[in-house]
Write a structure and sequence with these properties.
The protein has 13 helices and 8 strands. It starts with a helix and ends in an 8-residue tail after the last helix. The chain has an 8-stranded mixed beta sheet with strand order 3-2-1-4-7-6-8-5, with helices on both faces. By secondary structure, it is α/β, with parallel strands linked by helices. It is elongated, with a radius of gyration of 24 Å. Helices cover 52% and strands 14% of the residues.
Length: 407
């Protein structure tokens, strides 16, 4: 509740990031696409980059095929042949090297003044570069991020993530006002090429290289800007297994990178980022794991065991128990039976959450009922449970030193 109200007050004070106007000139831009077995989406992703509303002579695209075993390479080669007017270079790895190394290989030969990574399951709107590049007039800006939207969610889990992305990216826009953005997502975040090269490129032995480069930018006092007026559409997992694998990597990478950059935590030199944001990120994961264990034990496991114990004395006569409970509830009802303190905090937290929800949809120009009536309730009810469950397993894996796949 403290952090929720903290960011809500910052929003009330500072509002959201506004558009910076038009470009004075068109700088050169390199778009890199690291791909691994993305045959289903790579063509559409590549075409979204080719069709950007930007001078063709100022744009180059580098596709790094990192050891794909499907038809990714053939699809990319066909698109290159069909669009000879666009500068597209294909680099093929026989064996998988990892996303970080693939991006560094593209960075070494990039000719653009700006460098952006476009994940092969994401599609960018045509005017993105024209809207994003003006923010680099501020010399402190090291990266500019678009608004991630879920691409055509079909299942309930995908619609839940659609809601999650809208709210989280809106909150990240507020965080950007306080220089508190701690992760730069893969889909079409734009960097200054010189800055990334000066910092040593992307981390190669890191399961969340996007989060690591964010922390490195923050450590070197570069500003990260989160926009709401530029959209990139990304495909999300639609099954529990897919969500688990994705979030397991995200959360584990968060903890490992926080440990590597622990010198920033509670460091006044980094302002609110060091004193508020990084402690918040760690505490959120720890609390999520702790609370689901405590709630599971105190509200489910322990009451169930006690219920079985008590029922054994009456030979499990459920009808008798129901009658006693019903009559007791009807004739002995009192407001004093309720825990007013817990109700107060629950209502307050829900009010703050709904306020964020309202403004998030308002400023991202989304309709709350766009994907049906179930999306928002599913997010509010299920998201915390799913995320907390993954956090429990992540901490267990970290304690037992289990690894996760890099890509």
């Amino acid at each position: 509740m403290f952090f929720l109200i903290f960011w809500l007050l910052n929003f009330m004070e500072k509002g959201v990031e506004r558009e910076k106007g038009k470009l004075d000139k068109f700088p050169s831009v390199t778009i890199t696409m690291p791909v691994l077995n993305e045959g289903d989406t790579v063509r559409q992703t590549l075409l979204s980059a080719i069709n950007l509303d930007y001078p063709r002579n100022k744009l180059e695209i580098i596709v790094v095929n990192d050891g794909s075993t499907d038809k990714t390479r053939e699809i990319v080669e066909k698109v290159i042949w069909q669009h000879k007017e666009t500068r597209i270079k294909l680099i093929n790895h026989i064996k998988n090297k990892g996303k970080g190394e693939s991006m560094n290989e593209a960075l070494k030969i990039a000719k653009g003044e700006f460098f952006t990574c476009l994940d092969a399951d994401s599609f960018i709107e045509s005017k993105a570069l024209k809207k994003m590049l003006p923010y680099f007039k501020d010399k402190r800006v090291g990266a500019v991020l678009p608004l991630m939207r879920v691409y055509k969610p079909r299942t309930m889990l995908a619609k839940m993530q659609w809601c999650e992305y809208i709210i989280n990216l809106f909150m990240k826009n507020i965080m950007a006002k306080k220089d508190c953005v701690h992760v730069i997502p893969g889909p079409f975040s734009v960097y200054k090429t010189e800055v990334i090269r000066t910092l040593g490129g992307f981390a190669e032995n890191n399961i969340t290289e996007d989060l690591e480069i964010s922390l490195r930018l923050q450590k070197n006092h570069y500003k990260i800007v989160q926009l709401l007026g530029v959209s990139v559409y990304t495909v999300v997992p639609e099954t529990l297994k897919g969500i688990y694998k994705q979030r397991n990597r995200w959360y584990k990478g968060t903890m490992l990178n926080l440990f590597n950059y622990k010198s920033l935590v509670f460091n006044k030199k980094y302002g609110d980022f060091g004193m508020v944001q990084l402690p918040h990120v760690f505490i959120s994961g720890l609390l999520a794991a702790t609370m689901i264990i405590l709630v599971g034990y105190t509200m489910i496991l322990k009451p169930f065991v006690m219920w079985l114990y008590d029922m054994s004395y009456i030979n499990f006569d459920i009808i008798f128990v129901f009658k006693r409970w019903f009559s007791s509830t009807i004739y002995n009802f009192s407001m004093l039976n309720f825990n007013i303190t817990n109700i107060f905090f629950a209502v307050t937290a829900m009010a703050c959450s709904l306020t964020f929800l309202y403004y998030a949809y308002k400023f991202t120009k989304e309709r709350i009922l766009k994907h049906g009536i179930i999306a928002v309730p599913a997010y509010l009810i299920l998201y915390s449970f799913i995320a907390s469950s993954v956090w429990v397993w992540v901490f267990f894996q970290l304690l037992t030193q289990r690894k996760v796949q890099k890509w």
